[in-house]
Amino acid sequence: MIKLNWGNNWIRLLALLLAITMWVYVSNEQNPVREKLLNVKLEHNELEKDYILAGGLPESVRLRIQGNQNQLNNLAPGDFRAVVNIPAGKTGEMVLPVQVSAPAGLRVVQVIPEEVSVVVDRVISKQIPVAVSIRGTPEQGYTALAPQYYPNVVTVRGPSRLVNGISQATAIVDIHQAVRDVTQTVTLSTGSPDVTLNPATIQVVVPVASAEISKTVPVLPQVTGTPAPGYTLKGSFAEPATVLVHGLPEVVGAITEIKTVPVSIQGSGNSLSGEVDLVVPQGVTRLQPSRVNIRIEIEEIEGDEAPSGSPGDNIDSASNMQLR
Known about the structure:
Helix content: 10-25%
CATH architecture of the largest domain: Beta Complex
Number of helices: 4
Order of helices and strands: HEEEHEEEEEEEEHEEEEEEEEEHEEEEEE
CATH class of the largest domain: Mainly Beta
Radius of gyration: 51 Å
Strand content: over 45%
Largest sheet: 6 strands, mixed
CATH topology of the largest domain: RNA Polymerase Alpha Subunit, Chain A, domain 2
Shape: rod-shaped
Number of strands: 26
């Protein structure tokens, strides 16, 4: 039977423990355990096709690292990897842990933050109508008609939470002081920079037409004065007898006739004829024609109605006198 010498063994064990304690003490004194803070880039796993990270993932996390002085002296952020694993096929907001891998011999004491809230969305497409609005007004006397453009439907693509809230693509065409059709290539917008449109631009034509109307009205010669004694005004006539009046509807609608400039027959004993100007009412933009020929017929009073005196006294000698 083997007999153990417990006295000697106990002394040996105590000596070993003292040696280990001394080694740890000396090691810690010469190469003590320290902590270090590092900012490490935060990554995520690859997402499935048409799935995107819509927000919530910070650029980096802060790590509290524990190790001896020698290990910490040469430590760099690239020695660590911080990853968030996003579940496949899921969308919406999720709270996920940050997983950190570290070099051997080092201890990650703390991850700040330990969890992150991320939003995963799916990319979708849909067709939406195009709406074109007009900015500015044409020149006075002109009006803009409904814009013409193609295509009138485009495709919007982006995160579902954005695409589902978009009802149309819009564009603006400036027609300030235009007097003819306006053709522009304009960029479409949805109000969100995080979606794309196909096509992104369209060509728009805004027809610009005259706002004027026209109406045919009679010409009224204006005759002033009285003929020579023994003569009377038989009548006045214009050729053409009507003119075409152009202008805004509220102006043209109130016009019933166009007058010539006044023509005096004071003391005349002969009929008069010639070309005269027309009086243009305020608000009228154009008369067609702007001048007319008129004839003013003057005749001698017959019988007892004629005043005394020789025929032709105080009478113009020229028949068909030209008017200017």
